[in-house]
Write a structure and sequence with these properties.
With 723 residues, the protein is an alpha/beta fold. It is 27% helix and 17% strand.
Length: 723
C-alpha cells in the first residue's frame, strides 16, 4: 500500500511531501521481515524500518538490514553495465551501454552454442534475493530455452528437505508463533539470536510460562549462552545424540504409544534399530556424558508439548540427512504433535502454495540436459569433471561463488581462464564480479516489485517498489526479459510483466490463500496464510502427514527410490538424480574427517573447522559495507585456549588456517566458547578484505553429505599455526 501526501500537506505523522511504502526484506533469512519505507517528495528513500503492525516483525529489523539505505545509496553500487578492460581479477572495467552489453552477451552465447553446444553455458545462482519473482528461479526459463547446463543449487537445506520429506512429508510443521505454548524447546544447530532473531521473543515468552530451553551446538553461541542449558557435542555427531535419545525414549517406555500406534509406520523396525544406540555408545561418539543424554531424552519426552527447532547447519556433515531423519521421528515417538507448539520446526515454507512451475517452467528443459552441482564449479571449470562439452560460458546472478563455493583456489583458477566468457549481474563489485567479462547492474529491494513467501513464518508479504532504480540498474525479471529478446526468444513466458508474474506466483485457489489476493496484499502489505491461529495450529494432532502413508514414516517408503534432490533446487529437473541406495531406517553415519574415521588426515590436521553464518552478514552480502564490517569485527578464527597454547598462539595473533585443499589467514581469538579440538571462523568475508588471498572456502571439501547432495562444510579438518 502506498499512502501519498501531496506536497504542502501535513499528515501529522510524516514530514510534508513524504509517502510511506510497504516493503519486504529480500534476504535469505527465515524472518522475511515486513518493512516500511519512507520516501521524500524528491523520490529518495529516507528511512527503512520494521513494520510495527506485523505480528512477527514487530517493528524491529536485524543488524544486517537495519541500515538498508546505506546499501541502496552506497557509492560503490554498480549502476551501469561494465566491460572488463584489465586482466581477469584486476577489477578494471569500463562503462558501456545496455545495448552493447546485450549485444556482446548474445553474440558470445550464440558463438559458444554454435561451436560447443548449449550445455557449454552454465548459470550460477542462489538466493542473493529471496523474492518469488527475482529469487531462486528467475533465470530458469531463459536457461531452459537456451539449453544450458542445469545448475544444481544445494547450498542450504537440500539434504534436510530430502530427509524431512521422506519422514513427515512437505509439511509446515510447527507455527513459530506457537512456540509460546511449548514446554520444552530444543534448539539444534541453530543460532537463533544471529540468524532467526524474531523467533527469540516467542522462545522468551515460553520461558516466562515455564518452558525449558536447551541448545545443542559445539559452540556456546549467543543463543546457547542465553538458554537454560547448552549441550556441546563434537561436530558431525548430532545423529548419534538423536539416535540415543530415541533409544532412551523407547527403552524407558517414554513413548506416547497411542500416537505411535495410530500415526507412525515402521515402529517395530525402528525400535530394533535404535536398540544398539545406547547413551554410553553415543557418549563415546559425541563427548556428551551418558547421564546428560538420558536426562535430555526424559525431559524432552516428559514436557509436552515439546518442540525441536533445527538449523541449516545440522545437515552439513557426512550423515546430515540421516540426522534430520532421526530428529523428524522424535516428535511422533512422544506425541509432541498433539498440541500447538509441539513437533519440529524446519521450514514453514511448505505451507505456501507457491506456483513454482510457473516460475521455473521445467517443461522447457530438453530431456537429457546434464546437471552440474555448483559445489563442483571449481572442478567443472578446470577439467576435473571431464565435461563434454567443457564450460565456456558462465552467467552468475544472486550469488557470489568465489566466497560461498568450496575449493576456492581451483574455482579462481577456472574463472581466470581467458577462454571462459563470464557475465555477472550484481549490486556491487564482489570477489566474483572481479573475474567477469561483463557486469550488469542489479536493483536492490527498494527498486523492484516482488512477492514473498517465508521459510520462517506463515505470512505472505508484498514488496512494492519504493523508488525508481538508480542509474541503469534493473530487476532480475527485466534483465532476463532483455536477454531473451536479444537472443530472439519469443515465448510468452519471456514477455510477462512483473504484474503478470505476481498473478502467477501462487495457487490463489488453495485453501491456505483464502481471503488473500494480489489486491489485498498491495493494500495491506502482508497477510497470514489461512491456517488456524498460533493458539490452535496443530496440523498433525491426528496424523495427516504428507507422506504416502499419511503417517510419520519411521521406516521411509520414499527411500526405495534412492537418494534425490528436491527438483526446486535443480531448475525443476528430475533427471540424473543422485540415486544412491538409502536405508529406510535412520542410522548413524560418522563424520568423514575425524580421528576415528580418517586417522591419517586427523594426524596432519587435528582441528574441526566450523564455518557458521556471521552475525552481521547474510552469507557474503553486506560484507563490503563499513558498518557491517565494524559490527562483525576483524575476520578471526576462534580457538580454545588449550589448543592455542599447544601451538604457541596468543590472542590476536595472525594465524594460518590450512589443510591440503588450501589456506586462509585471520586473527586468532581465544575463547572457551568452543570445545577443545574445534575452531570456528564465520562465513561471509570477502577475499579483497582478507589478510590473505583466500577465505575459509579454500579449505572446505566438495564432498556431499548422505542425502540431497548437501554440503559438508562442518566436516572439515584443519591445522592452525602462526602466520
Amino acid at each position: 500500500m502506498t499512502v501519498t501526501a501531496s506536497p504542502g500537506t501535513d499528515t501529522g505523522d510524516e514530514p510534508i511531501g513524504t509517502r510511506t511504502v510497504r516493503a519486504a526484506c529480500p534476504q535469505d533469512c527465515p524472518d522475511t521481515c515486513a518493512m516500511v519505507v519512507t520516501v521524500d517528495d524528491a523520490g529518495r528513500a529516507t528511512e527503512v524500518r520494521g513494520d510495527p503492525e506485523h505480528p512477527y516483525t514487530a517493528g524491529g529489523l536485524c543488524v544486517k538490514v537495519n541500515n538498508y539505505l546505506d546499501r541502496v545509496y552506497d557509492p560503490g553500487r554498480v549502476l551501469f553495465p561494465l566491460r572488463r578492460t584489465g586482466p581477469k581479477g584486476s577489477g578494471r572495467f569500463e562503462r558501456i551501454s545496455w545495448d552493447d552489453a546485450l549485444d556482446e552477451i548474445a553474440t558470445r552465447f550464440r558463438g559458444i552454442v554454435d561451436e560447443h553446444g548449449a550445455e557449454a553455458i552454465m548459470p550460477v545462482s542462489y538466493l542473493g534475493t529471496q523474492g518469488i519473482l527475482n529469487g531462486l528461479n528467475v533465470g530458469d526459463p531463459f536457461f531452459a530455452k537456451l539449453g544450458a547446463t542445469i545448475s544444481e543449487r544445494t547450498y542450504c537445506d537440500s539434504g534436510s528437505c530430502t530427509a524431512y520429506a521422506m519422514t513427515i512429508g512437505d509439511t509446515a510443521g510447527v507455527d513459530p508463533e506457537s512456540l509460546v505454548h511449548s514446554k520444552f524447546i530444543l534448539i539444534w544447530a541453530c543460532n537463533v539470536m544471529s540468524t532467526n532473531l524474531h523467533l527469540w521473543p516467542y522462545i522468551a515468552e515460553a520461558r516466562k510460562r515455564g518452558a525449558k530451553v536447551v541448545v545443542i551446538d559445539p559452540v556456546r553461541t549467543r543463543t546457547a549462552a542465553a538458554a537454560d542449558q547448552h549441550i556441546p557435542l563434537r561436530p558431525g555427531t548430532d545423529g548419534a545424540l538423536a539416535l540415543a535419545m530415541a533409544h532412551v525414549i523407547i527403552a524407558e517406555g517414554l513413548t506416547d504409544q497411542a500416537y505411535v500406534d495410530a500415526y507412525t509406520v515402521g515402529y517395530p523396525e525402528f525400535a530394533e534399530r535404535v536398540a544398539q544406540y545406547t547413551p554410553e555408545w553415543a557418549s563415546a561418539e559425541t563427548g556428551v556424558p551418558a547421564d546428560t543424554i538420558r536426562t535430555l531424552a526424559r525431559e524432552y519426552a516428559g514436557a509436552q508439548p515439546s518442540v525441536i527447532r533445527i538449523g541449516v547447519a545440522v545437515e552439513r556433515h557426512a550423515g546430515g540427512g540421516q540426522t534430520v531423519r532421526t530428529l523428524a521421528c522424535l516428535p511422533a515417538l512422544v506425541g509432541a504433535w498433539r498440541n500447538p507448539g509441539g513437533g519440529i520446526l524446519q521450514l514453514p515454507l511448505w505451507a505456501f502454495p507457491v506456483n513454482w512451475g510457473a516460475m521455473m517452467h521445467p517443461e522447457m528443459l530438453a530431456p537429457g540436459t546434464r546437471v552440474v552441482n555448483q559445489f563442483l564449479l571449481g572442478d567443472a571449470l578446470t577439467g576435473g569433471l571431464a565435461l563434454d562439452p567443457p564450460i565456456k560460458g558462465l552467467f552468475v546472478y544472486n550469488s557470489n561463488p568465489v566466497v560461498v563455493c568450496p575449493d576456492q583456489d581451483k574455482l579462481i583458477t577456472g574463472l581466470q581462464r581467458e577462454d571462459l566468457f563470464t557475465v555477472v549481474s550484481e549490486q556491487f563489485m564482489t570477489d566474483t564480479a572481479d573475474y567477469a567479462d561483463i557486469v550488469l547492474p542489479a536493483t536492490t529491494q527498494l527498486e523492484q516489485d516482488d512477492i514473498m513467501f517465508s521459510w520462517g513464518h506463515l505470512y505472505v508479504t508484498y514488496n512494492e517498489r519504493a523508488i525508481a532504480p538508480l542509474g541503469e540498474a534493473v530487476p532480475n525479471t527485466e534483465m532476463f526479459r532483455r536477454l531473451a529478446a536479444r537472443m530472439g526468444f519469443d515465448d510468452p513466458v519471456f514477455r510477462r510483466t512483473d504484474d503478470d508474474m505476481i498473478a502467477e506466483a501462487f495457487d490463489w485457489s488453495h485453501p491456505n490463500m483464502a481471503g488473500i489476493t494480489v489486491g489485498s496484499l498491495k493494500e495491506k502489505g502482508w497477510q497470514r496464510l489461512n491456517v488456524p491461529s498460533p493458539d490452535e495450529y496443530a496440523p498433525h494432532a491426528e496424523g495427516a502427514f504428507r507422506t504416502p502413508s499419511g503417517k510419520t514414516e519411521l521406516a521411509a517408503s520414499a527411500a526405495a527410490g534412492g537418494n534425490f534432490v528436491v527438483p526446486l533446487f535443480r531448475q525443476g529437473s528430475n533427471e540424473f538424480q543422485p540415486g544412491q541406495p538409502v536405508d529406510p531406517l535412520p542410522h548413524y553415519i560418522p563424520p568423514r574427517e575425524a580421528a576415528h574415521t580418517d586417522p591419517e588426515r586427523a594426524a596432519r590436521y587435528p582441528l574441526n573447522l566450523l564455518t557458521p553464518k556471521a552475525h552481521a552478514y547474510l552469507n557474503s552480502s553486506f560484507a563490503n559495507h563499513a558498518f557491517h564490517r565494524r559490527a562483525q569485527k576483524e575476520p578471526n578464527v576462534i580457538m580454545h585456549p588449550d589448543d592455542a597454547a599447544a601451538r604457541g598462539i596468543s590472542d590476536q595473533d595472525a594465524v594460518r588456517v590450512f589443510n591440503d585443499r588450501g589456506e586462509f589467514t585471520v586473527l586468532a581469538k581465544l575463547d572457551d566458547a568452543v570445545m577443545p579440538g574445534v575452531v570456528v571462523s564465520s562465513l561471509g568475508g570477502w577475499r579483497k578484505h582478507s589478510k590473505s588471498t583466500s577465505t575459509l572456502a579454500a579449505v572446505n571439501s566438495t564432498r556431499f553429505a548422505d542425502l540431497g547432495n548437501a554440503p559438508t562444510f562442518s566436516d572439515t579438518l584443519v591445522e592452525v599455526e602462526i602466520a
